[in-house]
Each structure stands twice: as C-alpha cells, then as structure tokens.
Write a structure and sequence with these properties.
The protein is of the alpha/beta class. The protein has helices at about 15-25, 45-60, 75-80, 95-105, 135-140, 155-165, 170, 195-210, 225-235, 245-250, 270-275, 290-295, 300-305, 310-320, 330-335; strands at about 35-40, 65-70, 85-90, 110-120, 120-125, 130-135, 185-190, 220-225, 240-245, 255, 260, 265, 280-290. It has a five-stranded mixed sheet. The radius of gyration is 20 Å and the shape is elongated. The model is unreliable at about 1-30 (pLDDT under 50).
C-alpha cells in the first residue's frame, strides 16, 4: 500500500484541541449517536491526528466524552492490553510481547494503518555545519558505543572504525570529520514508538553486526513530549535529535532537518520522499481498536467509522502527516472487524 504525498503543518493550538475533546464540544451535525465515553492513549506522534478527529466527531456528538493522551506507544499499549483504553495510537506495529499481554487479558484488537510518517533527524537553525548524516554517522553519534562523547568530533574515530566493519553501501558512508562543537542530543525516551523506530531503522542492523546492544546511548536528554524535544534541539547551536515529521513541520522556524543517507545519497524528509519511502526513515502510523469495546460501545464504533471516513482522515493531512493513497485495506479490516495484525504491513 503506497501513501499519497499530502502534508501541511497544522498542530497549532493542539493543547486546546485535546482539552476541548475531553471537556466539551460544539453542538451540530447529524451523526449524533447519544452518550458514552471513549479513551484513547499511546503515541505522541499519532496524538495530533486522533485529537483532531475527536474534536470533529465531538462537534457532532457533544454528549460523548473523549480523552486523548500521548504518553508514548509503549505506555499506550500497556494500558490498552490491560483493558484501560478503547483505542491505542501507535507509531510502530504492536510487538509480540504486547500481543501476548493482550491475549492473556482476553483483548482482541483491530490494527488499522492510518498514515505514514518520516522520522525526522533535526538540528538547530544555527547549525550550518551539518546538512546530511548517514545511518553509519547516526550510529557513531547516538548508538551504544558513543556513551560519554561530549562533542561531535569525539565520534570521528568511532565512525571510521564502524565504516571499516559494516557495509556502508547499506547504511551510507561517514560524513566526517565532524565539527569540534558540543554534541547536545535531545530525543524520545524508551516509552516512545519513535524511539523504537529509531533503534530499529538506524541502530539495530549496525549494532547486531558489531555485537552491541541495539539501543541508544543512555546519556542524552530524553522526553515523551515532542514539544520538549523540539525546544531542546532549538536550544543548542550544535544540537541533534529526532521527532515525527509533523512536529518538524510545525517548528521549521526553530529547527532544521538533516538529510539522511542510507547508501543512495542524501534524502530530505518531504511529503514526496516519505510517500515513496525514498526517505530511509519512513514509517507507518496506526490505531488499534479493542474489538470487544467496539462491539459493546456504540460510541467507539461510531468514532472509528468517522475516523476512517474521508472527513475524518482529513485530520492526517491537517496534522502534518502523509495520507495513504488507498484506504481500502483499513476500511475492509474495520468493516469485517478483522482482528490481529495486518498481513500487508507497509
């Protein structure tokens, strides 16, 4: 399934939207399904999409209480598989261990691919010395062997060693020597699906080849709040960090995207490169629906109906992500209430 390149930045007043969804809405519309409540938790990356959908849905269903929060994909799945939420936002597919927890608690889920994101590598607007980094570079700067490195140039020797031991045609060549400037890293914590995706797409293949743990260096500033990450990146002249594409778009006045080289040259994150998966850090975004709650709670079923409608999916574009070219698979899975993971993940 290939996504369509249509994305604009529109996360302004996001906190107000979340508050409106939880506390009240505008009366109107002709799809009022009565009262009830819906609890949504999970990815901070997907949170803006679900919050916009919830705001529009609540305007037609003012008696339904909707809570939307974004503590991170992992924390969201912990709540979801414990039966605490109806819908889990996710910036990565559900893990086998999480599936096992859901199964142990008798929770069946419906996995729905709703958008595509490009995990964006960022630096400060003031940092004009770094415009492109390969996966080899990113491993040397942020991976498990970079603990204690305080400046960019501290990684010069490591990146040369890494390049000599891995296939740089698959990971991209080093873009060293690096500047002799403080290496100030701000990124997601381990509760985040964005963290998991970064480890999977950037660090894990090289870490495995070098006999290292597939994890980031622990000595950086980590946050579950994407806006805190943006402020951290913007606050240092020689910063490095990563967030979802929409948060980059909404803060282009504060931060600069670094192109990524995975062996085919430097590619910047744009709607077109994300849509084509030319950008090496493109990834699918999901919502997971508790199948039993959907059967028992008309509000949940009506909300997902609206989410997958043309009107509901406009939120993908409005939140700054890339919509799919064809939503047939997601709509069919939902209409048929097909549980479990999709057989055709992007």
């Amino acid at each position: 399934m290939r996504p369509r390149a249509t994305a604009t930045a529109a996360i302004a007043a996001f906190a107000l939207i979340v508050a409106a969804c939880a506390g009240g809405g505008t009366t109107g519309g002709d799809t009022d399904v009565g009262g009830g409540s819906i609890a949504i938790s999970g990815s901070s990356t997907v949170e803006p999409i679900s919050a916009l959908v919830a705001e529009a849905f609540k305007s037609q269903n003012p008696d339904i209480g909707i809570s939307v929060e974004g503590p991170g994909t992992g924390d969201g799945f912990a709540k979801f598989c414990n039966g605490e939420t109806d819908i889990s936002d996710a910036s990565r597919p559900i893990k086998d261990a999480e599936i096992a927890t859901c199964e142990a608690n008798g929770i069946e889920f419906i996995e729905l691919h709703i958008a595509t994101d490009g995990l964006s590598i960022l630096t400060s607007k003031q940092n004009d010395r770094i415009s492109c980094l390969s996966k080899t570079d990113l491993y040397a700067l942020t991976g498990p062997e970079s603990i204690g490195m305080a400046t960019w140039s501290d990684a010069d020797e490591l990146v040369s060693d890494v390049a000599a031991t891995v296939d740089t045609a698959a990971f991209g060549p080093p873009h060293a020597p690096y500047p002799d400037a403080p290496l100030v890293i701000t990124g997601p914590g381990e509760e985040s699906g964005t963290y998991d995706t970064y480890v999977e797409l950037v660090l894990e293949p090289i870490a495995d080849a070098r006999g290292q743990e597939a994890a980031t260096r622990p000595d950086y500033t980590a946050s579950a709040n994407d806006n805190v990450i943006i402020e951290g990146i913007a606050g240092s002249d020689s910063s490095l960090g990563w967030v979802g594409y929409a948060f980059f778009l909404a803060n282009e006045d504060k931060v600069e995207a670094i192109a990524v080289d995975a062996g085919n040259g430097c590619v910047e994150p744009t709607p077109d490169t994300i849509a084509s998966f030319e950008y090496p850090l493109s990834r699918p975004l999901f919502i997971y629906v508790n199948a039993q709650r959907a059967a028992e709670n008309p509000a949940v079923a009506a909300f997902v109906d609206y989410y997958l409608s043309d009107g509901g999916l406009q939120a993908v574009v409005d939140a700054g992500y890339v919509a799919l070219d064809d939503y047939t698979e997601a709509r069919t899975r939902w209409a048929d209430r097909t549980t479990g993971s999709s057989d055709a993940r992007p």
